[in-house]
Amino acid sequence: MKNVWNNFKKNPLFLPIICMILVLLINLFKDPGFFSIGVKNGVLYGRLVDVLNRGSEIAILAIGQTLVVAVSAGTDISVGSVMALAACGGCVVLTGYGNTSVTSVIAPIGLGIFVGIIYGGICGCINGAMVAKLKVQPMVATLILYTAARAVGLLLCNNQISYIRYEPYKYLGNFFPGCPIPTPILVTILMIVLAQLILKKTSLGLYVQSVGINSRASKICGIDSEKICFICYVICGLCAGVAGMIASSRIYSADSNNIGLNYEMDSILAVALGGNSLAGGKFNMAGSIIGAYTIQAITTTLLAMGVSTDQAPVVKAIIVVAIVTIQAPVFRSWLEKRRTEKKLAKEAVV
């Protein structure tokens, strides 16, 4: 058992998992039934279900953000705005231009969702071309859509919020009839499985890490660094498109001003909390997913403890700083050095 514990401590996921568990355990002081899960009206409910459900969009964004960080040593700060643009683009297909509220759709639901995801992919192409082909710094390149995407989405919706009061449209962001598990959780699982299949069953995962570690050396070895970087940004855009359509379905509308607001920061934090280096190179997708749900768990915890929405970001920032510090290589090296010194001191006494 001791060997198993020691091996687990050496695992890169050790600290992310421990941090998430600690955040969740804090809820027991406020609500002893925090971990209870029940079934009501045929669907699962409970705080843990809420964490998994509400954290779905961030988890999906973290998939794309992880690849972007790994391949370019930069971040995509446009994903929140791209979510809004994708939601508006998909909803316009369903409602028609200029309609503020509809009770039926003019196109199949699947087509609207597909178009919304494609909007996200197009945004990913724009970001990828800027970074991979034009060699613009990732933050500067994605700053363009961070600023413009919401405005474009608003123009698509004729400067108004488009409501889709059509029951089937709510399924993606809530529950499918007869299914007790929230649909966003199922979509997140599907996205994670697809990402793992692509990264493990193809050479993309290896190429991403190679390009992130040394782009020039990778090019000499025959890897098309520009193409790999471009693909990662496209994947990130597609993930933002999926997350945007889920967010839109939750509120059955296209609200360009509020969908995905500040989600770009949460997705970047998810990558960092997962133990991934923002300097690029080697990455751990599982760590990013854990980081995404850790962020949502912090948000849920603060709301459960009665922290106001105005004060929550301050408390959340303090918690995130503490978690990042604990996971920092310098801090871990210092702790290891202290343990070694204490061990040597005890041996000297004996």
Describe the structure.
- This protein has 350 residues and is mainly α.
- The protein is built from 15 helices and five strands.
- It has a three-stranded mixed beta sheet with strand order 3-4-5. It has a two-stranded antiparallel sheet with strand order 1-2.
- α2 runs parallel beside α13, α4 packs antiparallel against α11 and α5 packs antiparallel against α6.
- The longest helix is centred in the C-terminal third of the chain and has 26 residues, at 225-250.
- The model has no long low-confidence stretch (mean pLDDT 89).
Task: Tell me the total number of β-strands.
Answer: 5
Number of helical elements: 15
* Class per helix and strand makeup: mainly alpha
Low-pLDDT runs of 5+ residues are none
The separation of the N and C termini measures 27 Å
Q: Give the integer mean of the pLDDT values.
A: 89
Largest sheet: 3 strands, mixed
Portion in helices: 55-70%
Which strand order does the major sheet show? 3-4-5
Radius of gyration computed on alpha carbons: 22 Å
Give the overall silhouette.
globular
Looking at this protein, list some descriptive labels.
mainly alpha; 350 residues; 4% strand; two-stranded antiparallel sheet; 15 helices; globular; three-stranded mixed sheet
Offer a concise description of the structure:
This protein is mainly α.
Topology summary:
Elements: H1 2-10, H2 14-30, E1 38-40, E2 43-45, H3 47-54, H4 56-72, H5 79-95, E3 101-102, H6 109-133, H7 138-156, E4 162-164, H8 183-201, H9 204-213, H10 215-220, H11 225-250, E5 253-254, H12 263-273, H13 285-304, H14 312-327, H15 329-349
